[in-house]
Automatic annotation (TrEMBL), chain A:
Pfam families the UniProt entry points to: ABC_tran (PF00005)
Domain ABC transporter span(s) in chain numbering: 8-243, 262-505
Organism domain of life: Bacteria
Membrane topology type: Peripheral membrane protein
GO CC annotations on file: plasma membrane
Organism the protein comes from: Actinoplanes utahensis
GO molecular function: ATP binding; ATP hydrolysis activity
Name of this chain's protein: Sugar ABC transporter ATP-binding protein
TrEMBL record, chain B:
Main location: membrane
GO molecular function: transmembrane transporter activity
PANTHER family attached to this UniProt entry: ABC TRANSPORTER PERMEASE PROTEIN YPHD-RELATED-RELATED, GALACTOFURANOSE TRANSPORTER PERMEASE PROTEIN YTFT
Domain of life the protein comes from: Bacteria
GO cellular component terms, A-Z: plasma membrane
Keyword line: Cell membrane, Membrane, Transmembrane, Transmembrane helix
Its membrane topology: Multi-pass membrane protein
Protein name: Sugar ABC transporter permease
Transmembrane annotation, as ranges: 7-24, 44-62, 69-87, 93-112, 119-141, 161-186, 216-235, 255-283
Species the sequence originates in: Actinoplanes utahensis
Coiled-coil ranges from the UniProt annotation: none
Subcellular location: Cell membrane
InterPro entries attached to this UniProt entry: ABC_transp_permease
TrEMBL record, chain C:
Keyword terms: Cell membrane, Membrane, Transmembrane, Transmembrane helix
InterPro entries the record matches: ABC_transp_permease (IPR001851)
One Pfam family from the record: BPD_transp_2
Name of the protein described by the UniProt record: ABC transporter permease
Amino acid sequence: MGEQSPVLEMTGIRKVFPGVVALDGVDFRMFPGEVHALMGENGAGKSTLIKTLTGVYEIDGGEITLGGKPVRISGPLQAQQAGISTVYQEVNLCTNLSIAENIFIGREPRRFGKIQWGRMRRRAAELLARLDLDLDVSAPLSTYSLAIQQMVAIARAIDVDARVLILDEPTSSLDTAEVEQLFRVMRRLKESGVAILFVSHFLDQIYEISDRLTILRNGQLISEHRVEELSQVQLVEKMIGKELAALEDVEDKAQSNRERAAGAKPLLEAEGLGRTGAIAPYNLTIHEGEVVGLAGLLGSGRTELARLLFGADKADQGEVRVDGKKVSLRDPQAAMKHRIAFSSENRRTEGIIGDLSVRENIILALQASRGWARPIPRKKQDEIVDKYIKALQIRPADPERPVRNLSGGNQQKVLLARWLITEPRLLIIDEPTRGIDVGAKAEIQKLVAELSTGGMAVLFVSAELEEVLRLSHKIAVLRDRRLVEELENSADVDADRIMQTIASGASS
Amino acid sequence: MSIVKKRLFWPSLILVVMLGINVFTSNQFLTIQDGHLFGTLIDILRGSAPLVLVSVGMTLVIATGGIDLSVGAVMAISGAVACLLIQDLGNQNSVASVLLIIGIAIAVALVLGLWNGTLVAVVGIQPIIATLILMVAGRGLAQLVTDGQIINVQSGPYSTLASGFFLSLPVAFLIAVAAVVLTILLTRRTALGLLLESVGGSPTASRLAGISARRITVMVYVVAGGFAGLAGLIYSADIKSADSISAGNLIELDAILAVVIGGTALIGGRFSIIGTVLGAVIIQTLRITVVALDIPDKANLLFKAVVVVALCLSQSPEFRAKVFGRFKRRPAVEKVAA
Amino acid sequence: MTTMQTSPVVKGDGPQLNKRHRSFRPNTKHVPILATLGLLVAMYVSGLANYPRFDNPMVVVNLFRDNAVLLVVAVGMTFVILTGGIDLSVGAVISLTTVLTATLLKADWPPLVVLPAVLVLGALIGAGQGAVIHYFKVEPFIATLAGLFLARGLALFINEDSIPIRNDMWRELSDFRIPLADGVSTKPIAIVALLTLLIAAVVLAWTRFGRNVYAIGGNADSALLMGLPVGRTKIAVYTLSGFCAALGGVLFSINSTSGWAGQGNGIELDAIAACVIGGVLLTGGSGFVWGTLLGVLVTGLIRTLINFQGDLNVAWSQIIVGVLLFSFIVMQRLVTRKAR
């Protein structure tokens, strides 16, 4: 393609928030027809950089040129008009409106001020056809899955003749087939000369689709590379600024655990447990000190299976035994009485209470199990909280700070602390490492390994097969809302083996 | 806590200024007569009792992310029930009977609160709509109870609720103080406050943390109903009759206002009982100050509107940033960094 | 049928992959409206069956006449509720409008100056509330409550007593009858109300502004990120509601040829109730003005039926509206829950 001039060039970008320098003289450029990955841990300044491009924030210093001309981006609408379109991680559409409207709202085809519904629907259908989608465009968006909503968001973004398309973690809630579909669309857009800024936590995806990548750390530019110039290990090192020893450490621990858990007695047994429409009846036994990993694609029933064991959803068939005795897990409180803990995948909506302080968030579950009439004395609260802030390295180490001001990784640690102080026998954690930086991820994995060494059973749900393989003694594989296979983790079980099961539906 | 204190600075200042005005304008701000305290201050304390009661209940409801529009209707119903029963008494001055009747009226109010709470927490209806039902139908019910008439009662013990004195302080004031103290103890000495704020902050997350959000939500509506019922009794004891139309008319709006002035956000979460009490007293003081200032009665509402607008704007961070931001830029940065 | 989005245009067999994502949920948008319509018909039929003179067309015509003000106010309220807001000030704006109209006419202002002046004033009050809500992030509930106090306070300040209107134009408008059929006629205010409804329906279904209203009610943050003029639209709906309230006030003053500060007390509740009974979701983003019309007619018909019965306490109408509110809310709840 030769060295053209960049379509977008940002130089010396500076953005300051009260007390924090979020971007400190960052340079960033994009060429037409390339997929450019923006890499960095949480807090590196990725989101801030993107928000200055989309007009959510105004920059405090530096210059942005678009197509060679300097621009000042003052708002989302202005960014769109300049040719910068964005699809966010959480799909930002109005689910009460139809698909066609979501694509065209704000620029509906009109005649004499009147919206031309017919034309709008036709154009929406054409546009979606270009993305290989055939949908009822007049149906409300709320009737479709998140993945489809994402595609609709992209359709909206590309229809405005975007020169720069920003995809902020578009793949985090898509399954493999959907990711492929997205990549097809991205390649097609690339051919037509669109510059795509791509953000993802999945390194494989980065390497599959990107041409070039820029690495940020602590609000500063580290370097820019062509993808083939940089190995994955080098990339991660540049992102976190330290060696990968931490991750390998975890591996060793988990290995040694595998042998230890062999003779343990069963803690929880589920028999024919199921919920219509959510998960087909399944059998699962979890032993003391055992880490059971749940593998499967998004929507395969991983989360649904786990939720039944906590009473977050009510099972409509089957039974559960704890220590061999039949129990009823009709709601979270009932499960907590049997010392089962559950940390949801939706950290923000089902995990933390943003307004409350770190301390209050940590003691919440313990307090709930004691009932409102028996408050935990303040002195004891402070002791517990300080201990866990130290143990889990929660940053900033201020127990009275509202938890919403913490980064994703630290919020996750707060949630883990919330459950650990209840001293659970079975800890169910759903996607604890999603959307958090590599360093925090390694710490959480290490913690899981340590907990199981201490005798706690862990049900570990993750979209990342490597993570499941590294930590689990036993792996349950799900496909189409059905538990299809249970594997003892051993040297000959690898990602390919599990992928096979996921793809074919059963062991041979 | 410091955030709440900061938010309460302006309301406190306004209250102090208004009380100051009253010291100068009223000929009797605080005196002793017949062994009782008398004067404008006592009028304010006595007069704010119903609003304080209703507002405190409202605070708890709002903390859970709800709202209770039916408090005025509940006041009307409890007053109507009490007056109807007292009217039928052979001896309206029998203390025991009146106490029993007060108990019955409050029980009715608690049941109405239970109805609201059930709709919100069990059926899962938005609070503003769920309580709208009772707000609309409740006054009709009160009118049915009194058969559309205004029932007058001549009961000494009943009047004591509103105009009596105990230890030289008004009984209504003491009831309000008792309710406030009880509520504060109940929320801050136990974990109830934390659990309330948690449910208000995120009901889903609270449920998954093992909090019985449902039970707590029902409970706050019941408490709000009970307090509203008590307020209705004080009101009707004051006018010695049951007036289904004007009892607690628009008090829900005053109560919500008091809560907001007190620094509790309408979306739920963090709440401040003391702030609410302050808000309720401000509203009542305003009412009395307007009279004391010889501002014609018809300007009362206009005056209130001005204060409300001023308060709302002073509490809006956006407003403060836009208006004062230019002058106070540096301190603002320091404050956040600290 | 202007507000309906008609049947799907795209059909055919897509790739398997995409088919899988359709979850089969019936279009629940229209269920509440149909239920309200059914109720309305049932009530009317039962009226026909029980009362001999109920078949007089004047019953229906008067329903529109007697509820013209409520309809106009409820239409404005529908816009506000669709964005997820609420406007408590409409009753107070009505009272201010009637008092101001009567006072100005008494001072011999030309009626053609008074009319636009009060309408603009209503719109300005609404715009002010909208601006406070948008720019200073004050909750709609509180901002419009302050507006309620302000407008009613002003009205009381101007005059506490009822002021008769002796202006010729107002009197003629008040006495004017539009013949519809033999022995059936209606007042101009009913026509104005219906026109308002019609314009509102067209605006909501066919203009960008209308669709922005739905988008904001669905998800205001998304709407902002999609580049929609959220602030402008929000301020506009409150302006519109203020305008509708002022128009309602003018209709009131024509109907009663007087102005009084107590006018329109509590009408905000009736308007909200009408919206809810008509299937407008109080959380915003879903509902139609046609539903609001049905809601207004249902509440009006209840009063008519109670009048015909004659021996019922009027308190019953409040209780019945309450019961209706209850059943419609529970129904909405069940429908949406089942769909999930």
